[in-house]
């Protein structure tokens, strides 16, 4: 998707500043994807508010439109879906282009394995290099027929018309995408499909299935579904994305004289590792006005400047903060002492190799950052200016933007177009809250 754009964006940041303000970050990306998927398969009309109008969630929305689902919006975060029922999707006329979005591809792969028609899933260069065997292999044991490249990557050809049967699968990787993929395939499988994760991961699929009236089975560490039940349309209020809030949370921690209040942020306990890690580092974060909205816990977060200390990050928190490590590395660079991350090899197979790309950029900015196979060792220090690359990875672009708050010189960040996948409004919100950020367009 980003590759079709003829302009390449560079973020140019002036150093220093403080963060101030009270605002709401855009809707949760994981919840937005799932609201389109389950709303499309439900009986009746689903109304969504707070939907993330970012390219990733829009790719999921476009895929369901291409399969015959009538979806209106998004209009200021409002989407209406006329659900077609579990068997109502139609064969798309072309390939489903999922752009930069791993969540779309892995979840759809499971859902489409149970359909009566064939489909082809494609993506951009980054998505086409991400590992898909983690979903195609367990799906094959359920009876699915899926062709990938020899390297186990997209494009994926999903052959419909197979009869799926339930499995019990002990997942080798802690991945909500794998878990969700198998549960979605399980909706179409004979019998029960059970999965067990090596460590808890985000549980939005399970919560939302229950919100749509689909029974979810639990037994110790196992979670499962029985095929053949139906989904009833419901209204969904998507909370603010804690993964987007994380940039402002870290920004307010590291910048002097800062205070932000982030309203209506999703604080599902399977997503709040970033708050736990920052609190261990000494951050001043107050969780206010806790409430529950449509099956997901939500709160307002007040964050003030603080003196962060380096820590050894507990491995159990890694899956609960998996998308927040780029900005947590920036927090570690600004902390006193050493921060050690282990058990996070998954960071190497995200939109970029987030260990390598962040270590390179932090070193350019004068920080002693040592990448390891499954993490990083960062000695806090003084950030200087410099030109860093995001390699088309949205979270890296936004993480280095926040580093400018503590840098001694300008920071230029290349290849920032994909910030629009998860947080299209980031430059404006960042500028309004105090960051010296300018977006420069140049021909690719
Ligand atoms: O299920 C989801 O919505 C997601 C799961 C995570 O991926 P993995 O399951 O690959 O860890 C996360 O990194 C991604 O941004 C969204
Ligand atoms: C890893 C991410 O997303 P996805 O896997 O959906 O591309 C992310 O948003 O950080």
UniProtKB/TrEMBL annotation:
InterPro entries: Enolpyruvate_Tfrase_dom (IPR001986), Enolpyruvate_Tfrase_sf (IPR036968), EPSP_synthase (IPR006264), EPSP_synthase_CS (IPR023193), RNA3'P_cycl/enolpyr_Trfase_a/b (IPR013792). The gene is aroA. Monomer. Its EC number is 2.5.1.19. GO terms for biological process: amino acid biosynthetic process; aromatic amino acid family biosynthetic process; chorismate biosynthetic process. One of its GO terms (molecular function) is 3-phosphoshikimate 1-carboxyvinyltransferase activity. The keyword Transferase applies. This is 3-phosphoshikimate 1-carboxyvinyltransferase. It comes from Natronocella acetinitrilica.
């Amino acid at each position: 998707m980003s590759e079709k754009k003829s302009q390449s964006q560079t973020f140019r940041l002036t150093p220093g500043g403080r963060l101030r303000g009270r605002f709401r970050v855009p809707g949760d990306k994981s919840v937005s994807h799932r609201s389109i998927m389950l709303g499309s398969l439900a009986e009746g009309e689903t109304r969504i508010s707070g939907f993330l109008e970012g390219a990733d969630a829009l790719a999921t929305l476009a895929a369901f439109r291409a399969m015959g689902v009538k979806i209106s919006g998004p209009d200021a975060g409002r989407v209406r879906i006329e659900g077609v029922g579990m068997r109502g999707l139609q064969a798309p006329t072309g390939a489903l282009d999922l752009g930069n979005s791993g969540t779309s591809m892995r979840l759809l792969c499971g859902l489409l394995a149970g359909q009566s028609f064939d489909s082809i899933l494609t993506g951009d260069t980054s998505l086409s290099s991400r590992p898909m065997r983690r979903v195609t292999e367990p799906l094959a044991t359920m009876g699915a027929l899926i062709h990938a490249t020899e390297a186990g990557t997209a494009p994926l050809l999903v052959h419909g018309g197979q009869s799926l049967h339930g499995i019990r699968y002990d997942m080798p990787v802690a991945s909500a995408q794998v878990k969700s993929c198998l549960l979605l395939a399980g909706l179409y499988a004979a019998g029960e499909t059970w999965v067990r994760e090596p460590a808890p991961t985000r549980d939005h699929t399970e919560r939302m299935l229950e919100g749509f009236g689909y029974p979810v089975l639990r037994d110790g560490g196992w979670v499962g579904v029985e095929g053949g039940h139906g989904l009833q349309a419901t209204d969904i209020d998507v909370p603010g994305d804690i993964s987007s809030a994380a940039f402002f949370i870290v920004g307010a921690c590291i910048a002097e004289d800062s205070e932000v209040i982030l309203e209506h942020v999703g604080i599902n306990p399977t997503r709040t590792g970033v708050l736990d890690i920052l609190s261990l580092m000494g951050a001043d974060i107050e969780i206010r006005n806790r409430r529950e909205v449509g099956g997901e816990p939500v709160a307002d977060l007040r964050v003030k400047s603080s003196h962060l200390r380096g820590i050894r990050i507990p491995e159990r928190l890694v899956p609960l903060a998996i998308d927040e490590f780029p900005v947590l590395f920036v927090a570690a660079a600004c902390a006193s002492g050493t921060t050690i991350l282990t058990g996070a090899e998954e960071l190497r197979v995200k939109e970029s190799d987030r260990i390598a790309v962040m270590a390179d950029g932090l070193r350019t900015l004068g920080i002693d950052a040592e990448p390891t196979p499954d993490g990083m060792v960062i000695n806090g220090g003084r950030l200087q200016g410099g030109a860093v690359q995001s390699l088309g990875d949205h979270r890296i672009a936004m993480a280095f933007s926040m580093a400018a708050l503590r840098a001694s010189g300008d920071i230029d960040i290349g290849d920032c177009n994909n910030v629009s996948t998860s947080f299209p409004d980031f430059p404006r919100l960042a500028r309004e809250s105090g960051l010296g950020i300018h977006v420069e367009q140049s021909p690719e």
